Amino acid sequence: MLSDPSSENGIIRRYDAEAIAKYYRIRPWLYIWRTLTVVWVFGTFFFSLLWDKWTNRTEKNKQKRASQLRQLLTHLGPTFIKVGQALSTRPDLIRKDFLDELIKLQDQLPPFDNQIAFAIIESELDCSVDEAYREISPHPVAAASLGQVYRAVLHTGEEVAVKVQRPNLRPMLALDLFLMRCAAQRFGRWLPLNLGHDLTLIVDEFGAKLFEEIDYVNEGHSAEKFAANFRNDPEVKVPAIYWQYSSHRVLTLEWINGYKLTDTEKIRSAGIDPNEIVKIGVTSGLRQLLEHGFFHADPHPGNLFATPDGRMAYIDFGMMDQLEEEAKETIASAVVQLINQDYEALAEDFVKLGFLTPDTDIKPIIPALEKVWGNAIGQSVGNFNFKTITDEFSELMYDYPFRVPAKFALIIRSLITQEGLALSLDPNFKIVEVAYPYVARRLLTGESPQLRRRLLEVLFKDGKFQWQRLENMIAIARSDKKFDLLPTAQLGLQYLISDEGRYLRRQLLLALTEDDRLHTEEVQRLWVLIKDELNPQQLWQAALNTFRELSVAGVAALVPTVSTLR
Fold first, then answer.
1. pLDDT tens per residue, range 438-497
2. Are 159 and 153 in contact (CB under 8 A)?
3. Quick check: 365 pLDDT over 50?
4. Which of 169-173, 199-203, 301-305, 423-427 has the lowest mean pLDDT?
5. Residue 27 Cα distances to 6, 79, 186, 433, 513, angstroms
6. Angle in degrees, CA 435, 455, 525, rounded to 5
7. For 454-545, where are the E strands, in sequence order?
8. With 0-12 CB in 10 A as exposed, 13-18 as middle and 19+ as buried, what is 545?
9. Are strands 236-237 and 312-314 parallel, antiparallel or unpaired?
10. Rounded Cα–Cα distance for residues 174 and 211 (Å)
């Protein structure tokens, strides 16, 4: 039970909106003062911007105002610093002078007193600083919104980073989250997006994740789970956790040498191609969402590094989330439906994901999706970017009953942050140029029955096999250097001749033998796709299963057609 949010020991470790609200409702002087402070700070800042505009001094004072914004966010504390960090990854939203200042919020925040930090270490680890570490930097090497980091060496010789949480952090977060939730309840209905009843859920999701982020034991376990997911990926580096020197408010982990992803010059001078780092970041992000379901929800530049050997290093695992299997596969199919411009199937995926309720009539939504996103996608995959799609999607929320499920608020934030980070390295970056080949490969090589079912849903429409989609998917997947068609074809053939593939065999035969007449052109298209991947034993088994399914007329038609393929 929550007893006193003003005390570090008086608040539960997990976010509890009702308990926090109960506390502050009988202590109105606490939240009234905070509300007045926030309104005054932002009101003064916006008035300054208007005054510059009225007096034609906007250009002259732009650097001053950018610095002022960073300072006021810092002054307001961790919650508002988090907002600034999210904005710092959007060069397409924030003008450069503001962006340069907001980037400093990643790891250039004012540190708190060393004596307080060392006292926290000794209290949490139940030993002196000298007993825990052979060496430790006299001052923090980085200060972030929730804590600060010292560089140290263990008595066993390992170089480590020591994260120490800021004092009185939980009470500050609890108060700001209470105010945000009250604002969501009172003013959410007047926001331009159709979020209304869901906005408090988004605040609660954000609050839950913030409270998880400030529990360093939870972060350590998340880091180990993340490392296990990427143990066979040579392009991703995850630091090891030293549990003997860690607690809820102190975390000791392996020191990572590397370059911030926003420091393009240092990355290039180290002989690392920034574009390759971007691809690693996007692909690893997609793997988190679509393979593991366990994803990093706060991938800002302060949490990601390029290592000297060209790997992507993740160093902060406080804000993580988990996706269910069905949601992973639906997201994968939704991406493909979007690229294929199959808006009816896309609307159905939105229902499955919770963006539309099951009783929603999707018929009037389909042309709206086509109108908005048809322009966003254009003629090629390269014209697509996630920011454009989210902007266009927000327009639909005015007229149609879309809502943002709390779970997906973090996913959208994560994707926008990753794309914004990639744009800072490459202004011409298009996220789908990297993402779609991965998604196509993932569907084609589906190792689970659920994923294979999603592939069937993509390849069939109105009971007919969509040859062009399969050909496009294979062509796009081949554009990824890591994609090897041979094992993919073998997996596909194994599935085709299995009991599970019975439905697919029937549909293919219907496509090939419409009206009991084998269509030579379509057989040739299929043959081109698979001829180089078959071995004789597989071909013989496939032929046996095929003849069993064919009608007599279809068998008769097969002989002259196959002869044309020799």
1. 776 666 666 666 666 666 666 666 666 666 666 665 665 555 555 554 455 555 555 555
2. yes
3. yes
4. 423-427
5. 11, 21, 19, 53, 76
6. 95
7. 460-461, 464-465
8. middle
9. parallel
10. 9
**Which tokens hold the place of 154?**
């263990």
Model confidence over 331-357: pLDDT tens digits? Answer: 777 777 776 777 888 888 888 888 888
Greatest alpha-carbon pair distance for the chain in Å reads 89
Over residues 103-113, mean pLDDT: 79
Report phi then psi at 257, rounded to 5.
Answer: -90, 130
Is 288:212 a contact under the CB 8 Å cutoff? no
Burial class (CB in 10 A: 0-12, 13-18, 19+), 160: buried
Q: Is the pLDDT of residue 241 over 90?
A: yes
In order of 20, 91, 357, 423, the CA distances from 97 in angstroms are 38, 10, 42, 16
Cα gap 216→250, rounded to integer Å: 6
What is the C-alpha to C-alpha distance for residues 293 and 286, in angstroms, rounded to an integer? 9
Q: Are 13 and 215 in contact (CB under 8 A)?
A: yes
In DSSP notation, 296-353 reads: ES---GGGEEE-TTS-EEE---SSEEE--HHHHHHHHHHHHHHHHT-HHHHHHHHHHH
Where is mean pLDDT largest: 226-230, 342-346, 521-525? 226-230
* Token representation of residue 333: 């199919």
In DSSP terms, 305 is beta-bridged to 260, 313
Integer Cα distance of 366 and 7 in angstroms: 52
What lies within 8 Å, CB to CB, of 489 at 6+ separation is 529, 530, 533, 534
Q: CB–CB of 477/444 below 8 Å?
A: yes
- 480 part of the active site: no
Q: Are 356 and 368 in contact (CB under 8 A)?
A: no
Instruction: Exactly one of 176, 198, 298, 321 is catalytic; name it.
Output: 298
Is residue 542 packed enough to be buried (19+ CB in 10 Å), middle (13-18) or exposed (0-12)? middle
DSSP H/E element including 561: helix 552-563
- Tokens representing residue 140 in the block: 């923090």
Angle subtended at Cα 443 by Cα 509 and Cα 527, rounded to the nearest 5 degrees? 40
Task: Give the pLDDT score at 446.
Answer: 61
Q: List the structure tokens of 85.
A: 């960090």
Question: Token pair 């605040």 is at which residue?
Answer: 203
DSSP calls for 31-52: HHHHHHHHHHHHHHHHHHHHHH
For residues 19, 25, 31, 35, the Cα torsion angle rounded to the nearest 10 degrees is 110
3-state secondary structure labels for all residues of 406-442: HHHHHHHHHHHHHHHHHHHHCCCCCHHHHHHHHHHHH
Distance (Å, whole) CA 555 – CA 566: 18
SS3 string of 179-245?
Answer: HHHHHHHHHHHHCCCCCHHHHHHHHHHHHHHHHHHCCHHHHHHHHHHHHHHCCCCCCEECCCECHHH
Task: List all residues 6 or more positions away from 375 whose beta carbon is below 8 Å from its beta carbon.
Answer: 392
Q: Tell me the three state secondary structure of residue 259.
A: strand
Token reading at 261: 């992803």
Measuring CA to CA, how many Å separate 7 from each of 2, 3, 86, 247?
A: 10, 9, 28, 18
pTM, two decimals, is 0.70
